[in-house]
Amino acid sequence: MPFARGLTLSVVLLACGCALATKKVTTPAATLTSEDLAQLPKPSDERYFVVFFGAHDARRQPAHAHTWATLVRVRASDAGPGGSVTPGCVDPAFDVHTISWLPVSGKVNALKYTVEPGRNYDLHETIRFSDGNASIAVWGPYEVWHGFAHRFLVQKEFLDSGAVGYQAVDTFGEAARRGNGCDCIHAISDMDPLYARLRYALAFYGKPATANIVRRFMHSPIWIDPQAAHDWLIPRLGLGAYTLQKRKYIGFSKEHEPGAAADLDTRAPVRPVVSTLVPNRKQP
Questions:
Q1: Is 166 exposed, middle or buried (0-12, 13-18, 19+ CB in 10 A)?
Q2: Nearest partner of 126 among 149, 106, 96, judged by Cα
Q3: Which among 10, 109, 178, 282 is most buried, taking Cβ atoms within 10 Å?
């Protein structure tokens, strides 16, 4: 193992041990309760879907690992196959929001322990950022209730506000002390009102980190028919332009009950987690 890579991996593993002391970014998305979300009116002609992505290279170098998620708002009348299919372009009928937190510089440095400016890259910008150095896996698209969609959008708005910066390993250094920075994983998981960053340890990065987020979120009642993957969205999101590894979550999942006040702050049942990440060789 080259010295630089070994040192970087050692830093990541050390960071996992520091997670208990790290200061989680205070985000408005994590303060939303199920009751707050249940009060939101549901638009009659809208559906919401979330897609999770993970990427890393063959050597799993942290600089080439990334986790991101995309929320898609679709008019119910526009749902299903058809629409505009252009590889590399999103169907203009969709309203798409991506949490893909990376440094403004575009250079990920796992050995930098200070916070730098960050920004969300859009879906196709992120794939182009990752595609040259890493293989990309995708989970979903899964349908979610409108309350979780709101939480997701609040988290993205907070990140986009400039209130928080980027740090590739945020469990020590400036981000851990001051709670003013996060990495790509915690940019998503910090919206979780139940669990601290220890639940999303940086021993998982790249595709395993995304799998860990999917597993945790599946245990809260945010899903509409969680076993259904709405693959008709893949070409309409323009993802047919890329080689993606389609993954399927198999394990416990909790469906949202219409009218119920239940979201990520609804604790998962105490039971063993059985999750298998099944590669699907059929490309989108």
A1: buried
A2: 106
A3: 109
CB 72 within 8 A of CB 49: yes
- Give the separation between CA 233 and CA 141, rounded to whole angstroms: 7
Q: How far apart are CA 106 and CA 130, in angstroms?
A: 11
How far is the C-alpha of 240 from the C-alpha of 238, rounded, in Å?
A: 6
Both structure tokens of 268 = 């998962």
Residue 156 structure tokens: 């993205």
Q: Per residue in 45-96, pLDDT tens?
A: 999 999 999 998 888 788 889 999 999 999 998 888 888 888 899 999 999 9
E-assigned strands of 76-219?
95-99, 101-103, 118-120, 135-144, 165-166, 181-182
**Residue 43 DSSP label:** P
In this structure, what token pair is assigned to residue 226?
């969680």
> Tokens at residue 130, please?
């990752």
pTM reported for the whole predicted model = 0.86
What are the helix (H) ranges across 53-136? 123-131
pLDDT by residue (tens digit) across 188-230? 999 999 887 777 877 778 999 999 999 999 999 999 999 888 9
According to DSSP, the β-strands at 101-103 and 66-75 are unpaired
Q: What are phi and psi of 212, to 5 degrees?
A: -65, -40
Number of C-beta neighbours around residue 47 at 10 A: 20
The residues, any chain, with a CB within 8 Å of residue 107's CB and separated by 6 or more, are none
Q: Which residue has the tokens 């979903």?
A: 140
